[in-house]
Design a protein that fits this description.
Protein name (chains A, B): TetR family transcriptional regulator C-terminal domain-containing protein
Order of helices and strands of chain A: HHHHHHHHHH
Keywords (chains A, B): DNA-binding
Number of helices of chain A: 10
Strand content of chain A: under 5%
Helix content of chain A: over 70%
Radius of gyration of chain A: 20 Å
CATH class of the largest domain in chain A: Mainly Alpha
Largest interface: A-B, 57 and 57 residues
Oligomer: homodimer
CATH superfamily of the largest domain in chain A: Tetracycline Repressor, domain 2
InterPro entries (chains A, B): Homeodomain-like_sf, HTH-type_TetR-like_transc_reg, HTH_TetR, Tet_transcr_reg_TetR-rel_C_sf, Tscrpt_reg_YcdC_C
Shape of chain A: globular
Largest sheet of chain A: none
Chain lengths: ~210, ~210
DNA sequence: GTCTATACACGGATAGAC
DNA sequence: GTCTATCCGTGTATAGAC
């Protein structure tokens, strides 16, 4: 990877700049979607001239795809192994907590993903129909086992997954609405804990998880 | 209102044209948000030259505000009277079903609303902090009564409202993802009924509604 | 590597012919 | 009322000075 040149000096070299640009872009794409975002807005937020953004990223589309990919990798890094042997209560609790944590940790990435889906998922169609669908199917199988074993009520596992996704995502994606209604600017750690506890309690009880 | 001219001929006159434009615009704004939407795309979808859109609507912003207003009015026309006397089970069931129905009936309007919130609600801040917040507070009071009377578990009513909003909205806003995962193109009437039944069951049971 | 200047298409909006 | 032509700003992307 081109060790040729001086990547010393400055505040960390190329990688630091790329990181700055990616974060700025994530924020702008999150609010305005792919078409609504402008390179000028991204450059301004990154504190760079517009041309530098293109120099480092190649094009608007490549930049956008990099961000989608980064978000998918964050996602995959966390949402893993559920096995048939696992305790449903523990697994589902963990699922809810992890999803909530991801939203809090990467609010812009989560919103970016939401905007992409809202637009009809033009860049993510393959991911949704392939990787994600398979992920869901494997979890569905596990939950079906749980149901057969009487460990939870007979509910459609796909709907349960959608319920967990939507109810946790809401506090990121609809943050503006949540803040307006709760009358505050952003949720505290305590608020997040309260919401998480509420969701765990209601969803587990609602599905009759023992 | 200018009864002067011939608004005969053609397919219904001015109102019909306005309706066509509004629906086309709703679709484009829903997918791409305020900035990402172009008048050209709206005009194309409506089957009109770009200038006509502006002739009827005045400006992009006015058009957008008309759409937000139309969606708020649809909303208000339906989500009304819950009283302390009402049966919680019936009221919450009705709430879930109505919200689900609104999403199915006005998918573009619902997505448009979602995109506006995602963008930070620049045009809806007043509505959220005023009208909507008051609406929520009044329902919260009712639910607190129910809790005091032992009609349901002691859960935070605000979180319950968010849960109903998010879980129903998901099937509209994340329609692309839901379709990809369920492996079909759009949900059937039966699917919607199934989802609604699932949500009613899980949420009511989860909150211990008697 | 970084920035200014610029090419060229598309954005919203308006003028004016019909 | 309807459409074409056009204004002018902004959009992405590139050329080329430093």
């Amino acid at each position: 990877m081109q060790t040729t040149q001086s990547l010393s000096r400055e505040s960390g070299g190329r990688e630091a700049v790329e990181h700055t640009i990616l974060n700025a872009a994530e924020c702008v794409f999150a609010r305005h979607g792919y078409r609504g975002a402008s390179l000028q807005a991204i450059a301004d937020r990154a504190g760079l001239p517009k041309a530098n953004v293109l120099y480092y990223m190649g094009s608007k589309q490549v930049l956008y795809l990099k961000l989608l990919d980064r978000m998918m990798r964050r996602w995959n890094a966390v949402l893993d192994d559920i096995t048939t042997q696992s305790d449903p209560r523990e697994v589902l609790s963990d699922f809810i907590r992890t999803k909530m944590m991801l939203g809090q940790r990467y609010p812009d990435g989560s919103k970016l993903f939401a905007a992409e889906i809202l637009a009809g998922a033009p860049f993510l169609a393959d991911y949704l129909e392939g990787e994600l669908r398979q992920w869901v199917e494997s979890r569905v199988d596990v939950m079906r086992h749980w149901i057969e074993q009487g460990k939870m009520d007979s509910v459609d596992p796909r709907f349960l997954i959608f319920l967990i996704w939507s109810s946790t995502q809401h506090y990121v994606e609809y943050g503006a609405q949540v803040n307006a209604i709760l009358g505050q600017e952003g949720l505290s750690e305590q608020d997040i804990d309260d919401v998480t506890a509420f969701l765990e309690r209601v969803i587990l009880k609602g599905c009759g998880v023992r």
